[in-house]
Amino acid sequence: MPELVFFSGTMDCGKSTLALQIEHNRSARGLAGIIFTRDDRAGEGKLSSRLGLVTDAVEVGDGVDLYGYLVEHLSQGRRADYVIADEAQFLAPEQIDQLARVVDDLEIDVYAFGITTDFRSKLFPGSQRLVELADRVEVLQVEALCWCGARATHNARTVGGVMVVEGAQVVVGDVNQSADEIGYEVLCRRHHRRRMTAASARAAALSPDVLPVSAP
Ligand SMILES: [Zn+2]
């Protein structure tokens, strides 16, 4: 039975690396896949991993009908044995419904990869729809670690080095270097709640105000 599988996790948990691995394993077996992505760090129409691997992909813009794309592709006599959707958190809920239809009506496996929650620890709409519709949700086993060594389960956004919990869910084009540069860091829930990033923990450790008071 074809399946809609949601591989979920935090940032840095190796989602895109696994997506590339699945793509490699299946194409090595002579299978043909369609790779959808959106706003990959390597640029438009690319699926890349932090480990440096990259492959071509179909950039999915707003309003693109993913089911329609597959029907069109197949009607041209081309093959699609499986679909990979990376950065699936950025897809609209309707596009996740279209992926479910690809599984049910076209009988093609769909492997979606996405970050579950945003920097405010709220579900991305695309990820929420995947949790609702997926046949299986796999939490990735390559665990990202917080600076304290605990399992990192939350994504933090920093602006100019300071953690923020408000702002737009998706900031596009935040790659320019500046004092207000937006960064991301994975944290455990405890340190996400306390808004303690690696940098602020280091600063606190160096401050005499917070040195532990030794017993008299
Ligand atoms: Zn921590």
Automatic annotation (TrEMBL):
Q: Say where the protein is mainly found.
A: cytoplasm
Q: Where does this protein reside within or beyond the cell?
A: Cytoplasm
Q: Name one GO molecular function term.
A: thymidine kinase activity
Which keywords are on file for this protein? ATP-binding, Cytoplasm, DNA synthesis, Kinase, Nucleotide-binding, Transferase
Q: Which residues bind ATP?
A: 9-16, 86-89
Catalyses which reaction(s): thymidine + ATP = dTMP + ADP + H(+)
Which residues act catalytically here?
Answer: 87 (proton acceptor)
EC number annotated for this UniProt entry? 2.7.1.21
NCBIfam families to which the protein is assigned, alphabetical: PRK04296.1-2
Name the family the entry cites. Belongs to the thymidine kinase family.
Q: How does it assemble?
A: Homotetramer.
Q: What is this protein called?
A: Thymidine kinase
Protein source organism: Streptomyces tropicalis
Which taxonomic lineage is given here? Bacteria, Bacillati, Actinomycetota, Actinomycetes, Kitasatosporales
Gene symbol? tdk
